[in-house]
Amino acid sequence: SLGLNCALGPNEMRRFLEDVSNNTSAYTICYPNAGLPNTFGEYDETPESMAQHVGHWAHDGLL
């Protein structure tokens, strides 16, 4: 399998996930995180929004 790990939030990770998934026959995995903190030191991603992103990736055949 080939995978991507954190450092990027889900919006930034998708294009890299597409590149990996579309150029290999191996399983593709990902482990996104909440991205970088905002100016208040908090994270804008929620568990619910993360679940939606991952669900879309799976539906689109990227995982």
Automatic annotation (TrEMBL):
<dbReference type="GO" id="GO:0032259">
    <property type="term" value="P:methylation"/>
</dbReference>
<dbReference type="GO" id="GO:0005829">
    <property type="term" value="C:cytosol"/>
</dbReference>
<comment type="pathway">
    <text>Amino-acid biosynthesis; L-methionine biosynthesis via de novo pathway.</text>
</comment>
<dbReference type="GO" id="GO:0008705">
    <property type="term" value="F:methionine synthase activity"/>
</dbReference>
<keyword id="KW-0170">Cobalt</keyword>
<comment type="similarity">
    <text>Belongs to the vitamin-B12 dependent methionine synthase family.</text>
</comment>
<keyword id="KW-0808">Transferase</keyword>
<dbReference type="GO" id="GO:0046872">
    <property type="term" value="F:metal ion binding"/>
</dbReference>
<dbReference type="InterPro" id="IPR036589">
    <property type="entry name" value="HCY_dom_sf"/>
</dbReference>
<dbReference type="InterPro" id="IPR003726">
    <property type="entry name" value="HCY_dom"/>
</dbReference>
<keyword id="KW-0479">Metal-binding</keyword>
<dbReference type="GO" id="GO:0050667">
    <property type="term" value="P:homocysteine metabolic process"/>
</dbReference>
<keyword id="KW-0489">Methyltransferase</keyword>
<protein>
    <recommendedName>
        <fullName>Hcy-binding domain-containing protein</fullName>
    </recommendedName>
</protein>
<feature type="domain" description="Hcy-binding">
    <location>
        <begin position="2"/>
        <end position="61"/>
    </location>
</feature>
<keyword id="KW-0949">S-adenosyl-L-methionine</keyword>
<dbReference type="InterPro" id="IPR050554">
    <property type="entry name" value="Met_Synthase/Corrinoid"/>
</dbReference>
<dbReference type="GO" id="GO:0046653">
    <property type="term" value="P:tetrahydrofolate metabolic process"/>
</dbReference>
<dbReference type="Pfam" id="PF02574">
    <property type="entry name" value="S-methyl_trans"/>
</dbReference>
